[in-house]
Amino acid sequence: MKEKLILNENGSGSFSYGFDLGGIFKLGFKSSDSTKKNKVIDTVFTFKEVFAKAKDSIAKLPELEREKIKMLENFKVSAKANEAKQQLRFDMEYNFSSIDSLKKVVSPLEVLESMPKIGPGKQLGSLSVPEKENKKTRFSYNYDGKVFEKVILLPEDAKVNKKKKEKEKNPDNDFSKKMDDILKECKYSIEYQFPKKIKTVSLKNAIISKDRKSFILEIPMKDFPDDEEKLGFKVVFEN
């Protein structure tokens, strides 16, 4: 899973999420219906196009779901799935004119949850995550030329006590063991590129490029923090 942002001098840029899930085939993943011929997906679409065709279905969803889906409208999506080639990839990109356009951007997990409900996304149901596991996280970005900041906003009901979450885990459950195997193979990557040289990044273990205009951080999913707010950060630029 990769999150990438490119910021230009005038405040415009691009924001993207990439999900490369081809590795799950190595863990024995197969389509739910073995009697059907492997369906190959190779498509590019925008959520705006999907919404226009699915407006009746969207109108029947709860208000919070409609609000979440609306936030996806400006994203362009590329989806590829081919079980024979062990390929399962999903990329979405949003080109923005100003940093204000990124207020309350949806999280990657929320994107996965929404996809099976509408349009071509129904074919990508295997990418979805259970509703109860989704924190419904929002991202907010601030940039004034001197400092860039990413703030992660969690609703109150998402701030679950860590001990309670540990108690709910069942190490003897076959599904839990399978998920642990998958997480060992996965990583979350964050890459941000700026028009100015970076002085400091608040993220621990972030690697700043040689030209000091970008940084990258890779986190094994098994080490993904329980408190997602820890992935918020501040970048201070050189004068």
Task: Characterise the protein shown here.
- With 239 residues, this protein is an alpha+beta fold.
- The chain has one domain.
- The protein contains 6 helices and 13 strands.
- The strands form 2 sheets. An 8-stranded mixed beta sheet has the order 3-4-5-2-1-9-12-11. Strands 6-7-8-13-10 form a 5-stranded antiparallel beta sheet.
- The relative contact order is 0.16.
The gist of it:
By secondary structure, this protein is an alpha+beta fold. The chain has helices spanning 47-53, 55-59, 63-70, 108-114, 162-168, 174-185, and strands spanning 2-7, 13-20, 41-46, 76-82, 87-96, 105-106, 138-143, 147-153, 187-193, 198-201, 207-208, 214-220, 233-237.
- Compute the separation of the termini in Å: 33 Å
Shape assignment: globular
Structural Rg? 19 Å
What does the average pLDDT come to?
76
Work out the helicity level.
Answer: 10-25%
Number of helices: 6
- Poorly predicted runs of 5 or more residues: 116-135
| Topology, number of strands | 13
Strand order of the largest sheet: 3-4-5-2-1-9-12-11
* Category by helix and strand content: alpha+beta
The number of distinct structural domains comes to 1
Largest sheet: 8 strands, mixed
Q: How much β-strand is present in the residues?
A: 25-35%
- The topology string of helices and strands comes to EEEHHHEEEHEEHHEEEEE
